[in-house]
Amino acid sequence: MDFPDYTPKFEILPKGHYKTGTKIILSNLNRKTGFPITDYAENIGRLFNFNDDFTVFINLNDGAPIKIDNKLKFQNVTPEFSWNIEKIAENNPLRYSESNQIKGSIITTEKTLKANLRGITLFANGRLVNAPEFFGPSESSHFYSYVTGWLNIDFIDNWEEDVISTNRQSIDWENSLTIELREYLASCLSIIERQWREFRKEKKRQTVSDRTNIDVSVWVETLEGDTKNNIDSLIGIFEGNPEISDDIQQQSIKLLHNLIPEFPNLHWRHIHPELKGASENYYKNQDFYGAFIEALKRYITEVKNKSGKHNIDERALIQAVFNRRLLSVTKKYKKSDGSDFDDRTITNIEAAQQMLSEGILVGGRHPIQHEEIKELNGTGLFSEKDCLDFLSLLSHLYKRLDDAETP
After folding, report:
1. How far apart are CA 405 and CA 188, in angstroms?
2. For residue 1, is pLDDT > 60?
3. Strands 119-124 and 127-133
4. Is residue 162 part of a domain?
5. 193: closest CA among 76, 88, 73?
6. Nearest CA among 112, 105, 81, 87 for reference residue 198
7. Which of 115, 126, 181 is CA-nearest to residue 150?
8. Is residue 84 domain-shared with residue 175, that is, in the same domain?
9. CB under 8 Å to 231, separation ≥6 — which residues?
10. How many of the other CB atoms lie within 10 Å of CB of 157?
C-alpha cells in the first residue's frame, strides 16, 4: 500500500510576537480509542532527562498543558529513602575513572513498586540510553522490588566507539568499556542495598518503639549471651521480611518483651522488690558485685530495724537475732488444719535463717572486702554468677524476714 508523502504545515511568525520555543501540533488523527495524555507525558518523561534550560509541555486540544520534567518520572512514586550517587561514589572501594562524572539519584519506596517503575534508567546528554535495569546482580533480593532512579552518564557520548543501540533502549554491555561501567554501577547498588537494609531496620525499630513504648535497641542491649543473639536474630527476621505486617511485628515484639524483659536474669530470679530496688541500678550497669553488696546492706538494715538491734557487728547481729530467737521467721505458720508443725521442722528453718545469713556474710561479703574483684571473677573463685546466686538466696531470706515476728 502506498502512502502519500507527509508534508507538515508550518508558518514563520514575526519576531517578538511569541516567546522562543517550538510548538508541534498533530492534527487530523484517525485514532478512535482516545488519547491518554497523562500516559503520553509520563512516557516522554522517561525518554529524556530534562534540565532547567529546556521545558516541554503537552496538551490535548484546549486542555490544560502538562509539564514534562524529571519530577514526572516519579510522580507516582512515594520515596522512603533516597541517595545521591556522588555520595555513594565517595564510599565505594571500587575505583572507576569516570565516577566523578556520574550524576543522579536512587530512590527506594516503602511499598513495592510496579514492575514498569523498577530499575535504574541511564541517560546521556538528556537522552535515554539504557532502559531501567540493575546491572547484573541477582534480583532475588527484596531490595530490587523497591528501587528506582536515574543516572546521567554523559561521558559515553564522547567514546570513540558507539555503544548505544539504535533505538537508544540499551547499551552494549559486552564492550570492555561498558563492562567496567556496569561492574561499577552494580557495586554502587550493592552499597545502597546494605544501607537500605540498615535504614529500614532503624525505621521499623523506631516505629515499634513509638507504638509499643519499647525501645527495641536499648532492650536488646540489656540482654546477654545467647539470649541477646537469638532475640536480635528473631527481630531481624521480622524487620527483614516485608510480608510480615507492622501490626504482626509489633504484637510479636510485645510478646517477646513480656517473656524476656530488660535485664532478664534480674527478673527471672524473682528478686524480692526491696532487694531489686537496692540493686537494680548496679545490675543495669553490670556491676554485679555492687548489686549483691547493696542488697546485703538492705537485708542487714531490715534485720536491725525489725529487731531493734543497732550499733552491733553484722555477724554478731545475725547470731543474736536468729540464734536467740529475737525474731521468729516461722511463728505465723500453721498447718492447714490449724495444728502446729513439728518442732524439728520449725527449729531447722529458724536455724537455716541464721546459718544462711551468716554464710552470705562470711562467704560473700568478706571475700569481696579482702580480695580484688578482678581476681575473684577472673579465677572463678567468687564470680559474677556467684553474686547473682547469692542475690537469689538473699531474696529468699528477705521473704522470711517479711514474715518474722517477735516470739
Report:
1. 74
2. no
3. antiparallel
4. yes
5. 88
6. 81
7. 126
8. yes
9. 220, 223, 256, 260
10. 13
The residue segments making up the domain with residue 361 are: 270-403
| pLDDT tens per residue across span 98-145 | 999 999 889 999 888 888 788 898 988 888 888 888 887 666 678 888
Transcribe 51-95 into DSSP letters: -TT--EEE-STTSPPEEESHHHHTTT--EEEEEEHHHHHHT-SS-
Residue with the three cell numbers 532503624? 202
| Longest pairwise C-alpha distance within the chain | 124
378-386: which pairs have CB atoms within 8 A and are 24 or more residues apart?
384/288, 384/289
The rounded radius of gyration (Å) of the Cα atoms in the chain is: 38
The strand pair at 56-58 and 66-68 is best described as: antiparallel
d(CA 279, CA 135): 58
CA–CA separation, 85 and 102 (whole Å)? 7
Total-model pTM: 0.53
Contact 405, 327 (CB under 8 A): yes
| Amino acid in the structure at residue 188 | C
Q: Which three cell numbers stand for residue 280?
A: 537494680
The amino acid sitting at 141 is: S
In 103-252, the DSSP E strands lie at 103-109, 119-124, 127-133, 147-152
> Does residue 206 lie in a domain region?
no
At 151, list the grid cell.
543516572
Claim to verify: residue 84 and residue 107 sit in the same structural domain:
yes
Which three cell numbers mark 136?
A: 547484573
